[in-house]
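queue> pop job 88
queue> type: inverse folding (structure -> sequence)
queue> payload:
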C-alpha cells in the first residue's frame, strides 16, 4: 500500500480534504456523507481497491454517530461503489470505463431507477406523466392501410414526416388547439424531447441564456447542447409563469431563449392566463427574445369551465411551437412535431435528418389514424377521466400524507407536491424500494428552491393510484423515522 493509499484511510484527511463541505449538502446526514464519498471517488481522491476508514474512526473525525457512517457506507454498497468485507473493512470497487461518462444528472439517476425496476411487474410508475396503457385510445373502425393504399413508394425516408401525418397534425392543431397550421410548417420528430433538442441545438450558442419557470420540464436540461447554454429559473405560481420575473431576468441577458408551456405547465399543471400570455409576447419582442412554446399537454384542461388556452404561436408566427402525441394518445408511438417559422424550418429539417434520417413509417400511419379517430366526444371523455383521477389522488394525499403540500393542477397529467424535507431524492429512492417510482424535485429544479418536490402522474387507473398512495404512505413513515434517527 503506497503513501497516498495510507493517507486515504486517515479519518482526519477525509474530514479535512475529501469530505470538506459535506455538511452543506441537502438531505439527511447519511445521504450527505454518502454523496460526498461518491464524489471523492469520482474525483479520484481514492482509487480502486483502496480501503475506506473504519466507520467508528470516520464518525469521530466528522463528529457524527457511528450509525450515520454505517448508513452512509451502506448507501455506497447498495450503489455498487464499495464492497463491505466482513472483518476486513470497506473497499472501493472497480468500475467499468463506461460508468465514468457522462456526468450523472438527476434526470439520468431517475432513468437508471426506472431501468432497474423495469422487470418488476409489481412496480407502479408515477414518474412518467403519460397514459399508462392503451385502453383509453379511440377505437379504430378500419384496419391500417397497406403501404400501397397509403400511397407510399420508394425508400420511405421523408425527413419532414409523411404527408398524411403532417396533414393530420395540421388539422389537429388548427381545429382542436386553435393554432392555424399548414402541413409544410411541420416537422415530425421522435417525440417532443427530440423536437426540443433540435430547437435548443439550433438556438443555444455558448453563453446564451435559456429562461424557464422553476420547477420546469425535467427533460429541458438534457435538451441543451453540452454545457453551452445557461438555464435561469423564474418563479411559477398558480397562474403560471411570473412574466414580471421573466422580464427582469431578460433585462440582464442578451437575446435569451424563453421556454414556456402555457397550456399546462409541467410539472405544476398551472395554465398561463390571457393577460400574461400577451405580456409575454410583448416582452419577447422588446427584449429580442426567442419564444419556444411546448404544447405537449395542450388540450388537457381538467376543469370544464376553463376557456380554451390560445397558443402563443397563434398570435405571433415567430414563436417556435413543439409537442407530441405521448400525453394525449400513447408514448409508445414516439411521434412529436415542430412548427417553426420559415427561415428556421429548413435548418431544423437538416438537423433532424442528420440524426436519424426520418421517423418510423408504421408509427406515423398509426398516429395519423388515431388522430382522425380522436374526436371531441373522445377528448371530453379523456379529460373527465383525468379530472376524476386528479381529484382522487389529491383526496388520498390529503388523507394519508397530510404533511405533503400538493398543488391542484388545472391541466396536464401530473400533480406537484412539496414535501417537508430539503431534498426529496432520498425519499424517491426509498419509495422505489416500496414499488412506486416518483419524479424527485431535483430533476425539475433550476434555482435550487424546489428540490423538495415530487411529481406524481394522474394518468394511471384509480385502483393503481390508491395502491400507490398506500405504498407511499408506508415509505414516508419509514423515511420520517430515518430522518429522526439521523438528526438524533
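queue> result:
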Amino acid at each position: 500500500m503506497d503513501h497516498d493509499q495510507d493517507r486515504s484511510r486517515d479519518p482526519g484527511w477525509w474530514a479535512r480534504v475529501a469530505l470538506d463541505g459535506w455538511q452543506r449538502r441537502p438531505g439527511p446526514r447519511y445521504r450527505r456523507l454518502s454523496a460526498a464519498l461518491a464524489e471523492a471517488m469520482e474525483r479520484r481522491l481514492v482509487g480502486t481497491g483502496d480501503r475506506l476508514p473504519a466507520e467508528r474512526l470516520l464518525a469521530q473525525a466528522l463528529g457524527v454517530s457511528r450509525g450515520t457512517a454505517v448508513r452512509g457506507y451502506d448507501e455506497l454498497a447498495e450503489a455498487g461503489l464499495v464492497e463491505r468485507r466482513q472483518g476486513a473493512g470497506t473497499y472501493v470497487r472497480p468500475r467499468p470505463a463506461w460508468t465514468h461518462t457522462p456526468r450523472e444528472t438527476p434526470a439520468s439517476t431517475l432513468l437508471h431507477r426506472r431501468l432497474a425496476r423495469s422487470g418488476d411487474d409489481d412496480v407502479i410508475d408515477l414518474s412518467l406523466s403519460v397514459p399508462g396503457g392503451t385502453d383509453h385510445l379511440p377505437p379504430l373502425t378500419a384496419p391500417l392501410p397497406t403501404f400501397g393504399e397509403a400511397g407510399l413508394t420508394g425508400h420511405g425516408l421523408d425527413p419532414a414526416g409523411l404527408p398524411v401525418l403532417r396533414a393530420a397534425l395540421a388539422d389537429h392543431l388548427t381545429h382542436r388547439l386553435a393554432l392555424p397550421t399548414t402541413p409544410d410548417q411541420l416537422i415530425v420528430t421522435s417525440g417532443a424531447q427530440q423536437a426540443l433538442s433540435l430547437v435548443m441545438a439550433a438556438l443555444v450558442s455558448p453563453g446564451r441564456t435559456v429562461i424557464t419557470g422553476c420547477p420546469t420540464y425535467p427533460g429541458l436540461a438534457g435538451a441543451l447542447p453540452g454545457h453551452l447554454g445557461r438555464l435561469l429559473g423564474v418563479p411559477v405560481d398558480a397562474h403560471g409563469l411570473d412574466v414580471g420575473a421573466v422580464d427582469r431576468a431578460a433585462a440582464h441577458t442578451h437575446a435569451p431563449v424563453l421556454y414556456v408551456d402555457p397550456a399546462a405547465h409541467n410539472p405544476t399543471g398551472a395554465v398561463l392566463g390571457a393577460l400574461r400570455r400577451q405580456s409575454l409576447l410583448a416582452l419577447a419582442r422588446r427584449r429580442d427574445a426567442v419564444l419556444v412554446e411546448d404544447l405537449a399537454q395542450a388540450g388537457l384542461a381538467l376543469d370544464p369551465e376553463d376557456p380554451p388556452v390560445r397558443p402563443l404561436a397563434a398570435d405571433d408566427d415567430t414563436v417556435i411551437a413543439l409537442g407530441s402525441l405521448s400525453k394525449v394518445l400513447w408514448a409508445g408511438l414516439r411521434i412529436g412535431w415542430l412548427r417553426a417559422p420559415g427561415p428556421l424550418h429548413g435548418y431544423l429539417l437538416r438537423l433532424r435528418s442528420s440524426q436519424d434520417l426520418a421517423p418510423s413509417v408504421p408509427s406515423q400511419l398509426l398516429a395519423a389514424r388515431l388522430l382522425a379517430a380522436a374526436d371531441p366526444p373522445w377528448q371530453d371523455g379523456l379529460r373527465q377521466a383525468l379530472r376524476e383521477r386528479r381529484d382522487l389522488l389529491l383526496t388520498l394525499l390529503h388523507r394519508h400524507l397530510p404533511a405533503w403540500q400538493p398543488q391542484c393542477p388545472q391541466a396536464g397529467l401530473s400533480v406537484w407536491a412539496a414535501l417537508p424535507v430539503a431534498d426529496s431524492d432520498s425519499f424517491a429512492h426509498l419509495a422505489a424500494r416500496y414499488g412506486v417510482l416518483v419524479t424527485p424535485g431535483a430533476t425539475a429544479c433550476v434555482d435550487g428552491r424546489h428540490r423538495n418536490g415530487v411529481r406524481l402522474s394522474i394518468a394511471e387507473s384509480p385502483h393503481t393510484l390508491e395502491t400507490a398512495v398506500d405504498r407511499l404512505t408506508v415509505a414516508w413513515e419509514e423515511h420520517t423515522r430515518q430522518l429522526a434517527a439521523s438528526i438524533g
